[in-house]
Write a structure and sequence with these properties.
5-stranded antiparallel β-sheet; Rossmann fold; alpha/beta; 31% helix; GMP Synthetase, Chain A, domain 3; 5-stranded parallel β-sheet
Length: 567
């Protein structure tokens, strides 16, 4: 295949990487051997070394074996960003189990679906979320429940204050004494053997069931192998030029999400990077204090996080200059947000791209090379990419043409968990003698130099009057240039035989006011007539996933309900 993007790789990035044929839990052992006293985790100012990290993983792995967990068994991890998350993740992998990361904000209905779909028989949850697990337990296959406490790894004084003042008030104090096969995390560790029985792992074994966010319909479990997750973390190490035992990574992204799994947790394990664990990324003051105090060098994030920092009213009180590199993913990075953050920090903030089915990262702009604003950059080493026509999905398109983004590489999943039809629709053989291509569902184009641009989600495309295709991202990019706009989302609302009309939802910056007419006039000056919004709605906030991706689907559902009610 023609790969024009290779001409724009930075000098340290090769076309092909020679990956060490190890697994991530073996990488943790190796890093703990090389850097035993280096800080692996910082949580609320408490520090855990790589030696302590690896020893805790060993004990927890032995404890899980004691509960009957065998190779191939699924174990759910239902935790926020706290030390118990990486401990659990690596302990499950070490004994050949399959990690099922769960969103701590899921409702009982969502948790029940994921547990039943995965067939998990053991779950590690947080005390504040335990009532939900207790409520649905009889409707699942759960045999054992391990309950962690957020305060366990707090520094002593903070732990005491939390116990006295906040534990009960915040819903963290629960009684598990009468519940069968339910145990405290710290007690399970205390009585476990120091090491688990060894288990032979294969690169092709499933390591993680990473459930897609469900932003486009029913949530599906992407089967990521030990090879997938090792390779993607290694690609990240090479691309970011992460230096062994020298980096500190601000981890505000939730670890249950594939993005943080690779760019924070697994990258940290490979390179001896210190993870600064932040349990609540919405607490911007805490994030800024953490940056100022602990001086992170890497900050993978999503646009919503950078928007929040850019607009924080007392930003001048904090020192963000330690940050040198940031990759933004999960949603489109507006140009204005990117430029403003770089001005404030001096860091390089570049846009990348990925999806759960690819472990997740496939593209990024060069960190210190040619960063083309508005693009997702270049395919990573060993990653093949092409654009195909939307209608048939078989015709390869040339530079500048718009179609569906297709990817293949060593980080691409082996399929969806127990969903053969969906797997066949997504992983397709193009008859070229190679592995199947992952059809992403994203509409994109490639320029002559191999830089890719996401135009929009296939399912979010607006069918405008006269048969024009309108891409919400294009409208949103314009709206982000308006000096009063903080956040924006565009959708298509049904307009009978005329197709769809554009409606935009606006969150204004603090203290600003604007009118519908003002927004529409601004769009008229910057967009073709058929792309100009017909309707404008101002809101205090927009619905988002926990990673910060704006949920256009939710806005569209609300709009459909209004129409059905005759509003």
């Amino acid at each position: 295949m023609d790969k024009p993007w290779l001409n724009f790789y930075e000098p340290h990035v090769p076309e092909h990487i020679d990956y060490p044929r190890i697994t991530m839990p073996a990488a943790l052992e190796e890093t703990a051997r090389k850097y035993p006293d280096r800080t692996a985790l910082i949580f609320k100012d408490a520090r855990i070394t790589f030696r302590e990290y690896n020893e805790t993983v060993d004990r927890l792995a032995a404890a899980l074996q004691g509960l009957g967990v065998k190779k191939g068994d699924r174990v759910a991890v239902h935790l926020p960003n706290c030390p118990q998350f990486p401990f659990s993740y690596y302990a499950i992998l070490r004994i050949g189990g399959i990690v099922v990361p769960c969103n701590p904000l899921y409702t009982a209905r969502e948790m029940r679906y994921q547990l039943n779909d995965s067939g998990a028989e053991v779950i590690i949850t947080l005390s504040a979320m335990y009532p939900i697990i207790k409520q649905i337990r009889q409707e699942t296959s759960l045999r054992h429940v391990i309950v962690a406490q957020i305060k366990t790894y707090f520094p002593p004084l903070l732990r005491l204050l939390f116990t006295l003042l906040l534990e009960k008030k915040k819903g963290h104090r629960v009684d598990i004494s009468g519940d069968p096969n339910t145990y405290w995390f710290h007690e399970v560790l205390a009585r476990a053997p120091a090491k688990p029985a060894p288990v032979e792992l294969d690169w092709e074994d499933t390591a993680v069931l990473m459930y897609t966010g469900g932003t486009t319909g029913v949530s599906k479990g992407a089967q990521l192998t030990h090879k997938n997750i090792l390779v993607n973390a290694y690609q990240c190490k090479v691309w970011m030029n992460a230096q062994d035992s020298q980096e500190i990574c601000l981890t505000t992204l939730p670890l249950y999400h594939s993005y943080a799994m690779t760019t924070c947790m697994n990258l940290g394990t490979l390179t001896g990077t210190t993870l600064l664990l932040v349990p609540d990324p919405r607490d911007i003051k805490d994030v800024l204090k953490t940056i100022t105090k602990h001086k992170p060098t890497l900050y993978p994030g999503v646009p919503a996080m950078y928007v929040a920092i850019n607009n924080y009213p007392e930003l001048h009180k904090y020192d963000l200059r330690s940050i040198k590199a940031c990759i933004s993913g999960a949603a489109a990075l507006p140009v204005e947000v990117q430029q403003r953050f770089q001005e404030l920090t001096g860091a390089r903030l570049v846009e990348g791209y990925g999806l759960s089915e690819a472990s997740p990262v496939t593209h990024a702009n060069p960190i210190f090379g040619e960063n083309r604003i508005g693009t997702i950059g270049l395919p990573w080493p060993d990653t093949e990419v092409k654009i195909v026509d939307v209608d048939t999905g078989t015709k390869t398109l040339g530079p500048g043409e718009i179609g569906e983004l297709c990817i293949r590489g060593p980080q691409v999943m082996k399929g969806y968990w127990q969903m053969p039809t969906e797997t066949a629709n997504t992983l397709r053989d193009h008859g070229d003698g190679g592995p199947p291509w992952l059809h992403t569902g994203d509409i994109a184009s490639m320029d002559a130099d191999g830089y890719f641009r996401i135009v929009d989600r296939k399912k979010d495309m607006i069918l405008g009057a006269g048969g024009f295709n309108i891409y919400p991202r294009e409208i949103e990019e314009v709206l982000y240039e308006h000096p009063k706009v903080k956040e924006a989302a565009a959708i298509g609302v049904p307009a009978g035989e005329k197709g769809e009309r554009v409606k935009v939802f606006i969150v204004l910056k603090d203290g600003e006011t604007a009118t519908e007419e003002e927004i529409i006039e601004f769009c008229k000056q910057n967009l073709a007539p058929y792309k100009v919004p017909k309707f404008v709605e101002f809101r205090k906030e927009l619905p988002k996933t926990t990673v910060g991706k704006i949920l256009r689907r939710v806005l569209l559902e609300e709009e459909k309900q209004r129409l059905a009610a005759g509003q």
